Here is the input.
Amino acid sequence: MYRYDEFDHQFVSERTAQFRDQANRRMSGELTEDEFRPLRLMNGLYLQLHAYMLRVAIPYGTLSGKQMRQLAYIADKYDRGYGHFTTRQNIQYNWIKLEETADILQALADVEMHAIQTSGNCIRNVTTDHWAGAAADELLDPRPIGELIRQWSSLHPEFSFLPRKFKFAITGAPHDRAAVKVHDIGLRAHKNDKGETGWEVMVGGGQGRTPMIAVTVREFLPEKEVIPYMEAIMRVYNLFGRRDNKYKARIKILMHELGAEKFKAEVEAEYARHPVQTTEVEQRELTRIEKYFAQPSFEKMSRFAPHFENAKRENVDFTRWAKNNLATHQVDGYTIVNISLKPEGGIPGDASGEQMRVMATLAERYSFDEMRVSHAQNIVLPHVKLEDTFAIWQVLKANDLAAANYGLIGDIIACPGLDYCALATARSIPIAQAISRKFADVKKQEEYGPVKLNISGCINACGHHHVGHIGILGLDKKGEEFYQITLGGSSSENASIGTILGPGFAAHEVPDAIETILNTYVKLREPGEEFLGAYRRLGPKPFKEALYATA
Amino acid sequence: MSTVEKGQVMTANRLRDGDAVFLTRAGIWSEKIDDAALVQEPQATAALEARAADAVITNHITGQYLIDAERIDGKIRAALTRERIRTLGPSVRTDLGKQATGTAGAFAAVEG
Ligand code: HEM
Ligand code: SF4
Here is the structure.
């Protein structure tokens, strides 16, 4: 399994010792808050409403059983017995004390983890499909090229002082689960007629207060040209990107201000100025990195799994879960298990220490000791034998982890909102809970089909509301929380930003409004048409009419 | 008839654990908003600000600011939902925070 090798053990331990010293000097007064704040943020420590919050990095969302157990230990010993898995594929603890933070960082370092945020205006962590190396529709594993880009960029002096932070997302599958079109640069794998691999290069996407969809600047970039071409893009950004205004400094704004054609022309001109001389080093490095991501040793098995089929015949609840929460694996006899962290009425993404240990044990026993955190705040067991799924489901069920709502209306993304977050304008979790309760019946959820409902507690959009099929943004109107609803957003291969439907709703009105939207869809859909497709065909009008008819 | 007195309260986060704290008349930082000094006069506000600045220097608190509040029958109600949540803990985990440790404020995050 992949291990982060940028930060070797010694480096992380040194950083921890350094932080211990800095925190002590802060508490004794040698360092002022202004001096200390950047240091604590660099170590993933934020001040929130009730306590400090620690954000722990999980590269490529990948965790071993041992690492998950350590996260559970930290939750139990230093927090209040739980953690929050986020849309950034990391985990946050909500009740951290400054005086204990260095001990926590050491506990993380003991399992080769850290909370170091590669902060600042540099190239940030590269994210990929949470089913990487497992999904049946994958053309190739996106992680090696992601790792190559990360290693190249973190050593590159020219790109340490960009106008603003910069994020890559990469998918090796035609169905995009990595939201590549809402990142600064997105890459998607394609194969040409000759069977060669190339990457589609998309630039200028993003969320936050100015959401934008990335523009394709190259349809098919041969793999060996990826690094030099990225260099050309970064040079153009470095040269033209605005540094005068933090809100206008992202590459999405440059793309918008220059226009896509001009931007492409600039990149191509820059690329032509530095013809590719040799890419041998990159090729050799890529081959080395690929070994890290080598597939586990799968057994040769039949596609037919008799125990699995029997269990389905005998247990309707299991059948429902299997239908919604399992995804097709590349290898016959194996499957991808998606553990929903969205029980009815629960807090999206929260898991108790005990639940973390349960998942760790399942991963060790049934999934080559590997888990992934998905950006939809769920946990994935990527490589499981179909024959083992019934046993896994029984354990999950006993631990309130068997919600059968993966990809359905109950599988809500929500940021912490005003219950925890110092920047929030409204709460998001109670809205998620009320909707989850309203649509508690999974049969009902299945009738609505795949729907992504995303909630943010302010315009920073940590809850990805812009790209939810249904998006909810919590705002403040004269001291009252109210909620703006958008429809038609998507972060997949057909990415789009949602459209605001009309005036906002009070918190207690939101679940009914969502039901009205869904029922309007059911009434107007064509056979087999999913929510997003129907919305795109119909436009906002019928939904607006249904929602505001009585107003 | 209930008595209502409007004013401002000085709040901050305690440096070593981040807990929300409120400045009292005695100059102590209490975890409980009901202990806080509620002031109206510019001079009194300035005094709270000076105390808070001292507490920053002695490394007791960080991120201090004044909030609007009112005292109703002896209990202090912060004007903003955000601040009422700070006096209680997360509204979605009533088993945690001040509301679970006997230091809660007396008013719900959202009333009505
Ligand atoms: C609770 C403390 C948090 C704070 C203070 C915070 C703050 C912010 C801010 C200020 C931004 C905007 C940055 C910019 O556009 O330059 C941002 C973006 C983002 N946050 Fe958070 N956040 C928090 C929690 C979370 C959580 C829990 C998640 C995941 C569920 C998350 C996911 C994201 C993502 C994905 C973005 C990027 C959106 C984009 O593409 O622009 N954040 N956050
Ligand atoms: S979207 Fe706003 S409220 Fe939600 S976590 Fe991000 S900053 Fe906080």
